[in-house]
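Hi C.,

You asked whether I'd gotten around to modeling the 447-residue construct. I have! Everything is below, sequence then structure, no commentary in between.
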Amino acid sequence: MGYISRYGRRPTEYASKSAHGYVIKDPSVQELLANCSRPKRADEVSLAEHKILPFREESEDSIRHIIAIDGSYNEVAVELEFPSSTICFFQMGALIFSIEDLEKLEEQPFIDPGDIAKLKQIQRLEFALPTRNLMLNGEANLINSVRRALYNFFIRKIDDSCLMETLRWFVFQEYSSMIPQWLLASCPHCNQTAIPLQLSKMKLDFTFPCGHCGKDIFLTDVFRLHEAIDNELGAGGILGYVATSIEQIVLVHLIKIILSLKPDLLKEILFIKDGPLAFFGQTANMHQPMRALVQYLLEHHDLHLAGLEKSGPFVEHADEIRKNVAPGSVLILDNKYIYRYILPCREDAQGLYGRSTYYSHKVIFKTGGGAVYVVSVPVPELKLAPNEADLPNLWEILTNIEKLKCDMYDNSLIPVALANKLISLANHPSSKILQRFAISTVPHYEL
């Protein structure tokens, strides 16, 4: 890494223009490249070995309402000079509209702005997290500041409840056979491992005493985000995990409300989440209670939920093979296919794909109109070679995905496109405005 010009009196040291030659000539580098393998191209993919199902439109479609959940975040600098400080702003949204309103729009020769407004009924949740060289008043360091900020967001009232009540309901499975404790991987204070969080010992403020150091553990610490934060390097590495985890807790929150008010309504709602149905990184352990909830809902009520991916290796592969797949086709992705064509790995060395992160299986769906979607469908149990019977409500979900096609963008859906428009935080001008807001609001801390 070269030197930069800090004061303008001396030049910046730039990288060498010829040093790459030594890398290219190095025998060990050449040997490594020769022993690597890339994903197969479309003409090398043998679809004949994998059963492609013809799309079967569901004649008895019970879906009446759509709920799309999406989130966005933007990290901005609060202090531009040394020591640089950053903060991240999040905005989550749940967009709700009825299939009837959408169908009426299609029948009208001219679209009334009032009818469009019916498709834009969205509930927003906003919060912020310090990510580098910022501390909340009363906290000792950045790790505790992030923990406290997330805790404060979860205990904030949303209508008559809060996300923290939902998190307790979710983690301890209060909807069915309640489990008495959750085993936390590590204490955020003393770093002791395997800390039992007993529901009977949870205080009214959703905290638990650590059995080793006696300090308070927040219920939100079950996400294990404190393990990926460094007081010096910052919390930038957790932002994606925070966003996707809260999107799914918002989903659970809506399900909890529906179960308490009118459980039969679940059969009439299709939930759409932007991105795969999985928890990643530090939050991956949350896939276990999510699988339990999915299993409970499918056994006692019903669940129509789809994860729509817009980027990543699965989307790139689907686009690569789209010419080889006939319109109106569904390809269920099993272990063999994923590790052979999408994620080049030895199947026997990897085990079941998604076993520690996913609560869903993926399919590639090409509609009759030629649009291609990578769809995650929730399942009570992951299998090496799933078939259509292993994916509950598959045809009803895909029937509505085809109904919701959007011609504004490639392979897009109306609810996902609308939700993104209504809650996304753009680099320009949102980033600059949020930065000015943060700079003018955050004071210098005193030790």
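If it helps when you're writing up: DSSP finds 14 helices and 17 strands in the chain.

Thanks,
B.
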